[in-house]
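call fold target=Type VI secretion system secreted protein VgrG
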Amino acid sequence: MQGHHQLEAGQSIERKTTVYRLEVGESAVLEGPGGTITLNDAGIAIDGVALRFKGKLDLTGSGSGNPLSSGGEPNEGKPGEQSWSWRFTH
C-alpha cells in the first residue's frame, strides 16, 4: 500500500492477538501524554516524565552502540512494589 492511512476513534481501539508485528521503513513512535518510545536506526529512545520498571530487569550489555553501562538495585519496599535507583558509568 502506498500513500497515507489514518484511523481515528473517539474512545478506544482494541486488538488481541498472539503476535503483533509492526514493520516500518524509518521509525516507529509510540506517543502518549507521559512520553514517547521511538525505535529507529539510532536505537531505542524512551523519553518520559517518569520511568517505572516492575519485575526483573536484564541489563546485558552486548550491544555496540554506546560505551555507557548501567546498573541498578531495588530500593526497599514491598515485594513487587520496589522502585529502582540507577547509576550510569562511562
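return ok
The chain has a mean pLDDT of 78. The two ends are 45 Å apart (CA to CA).
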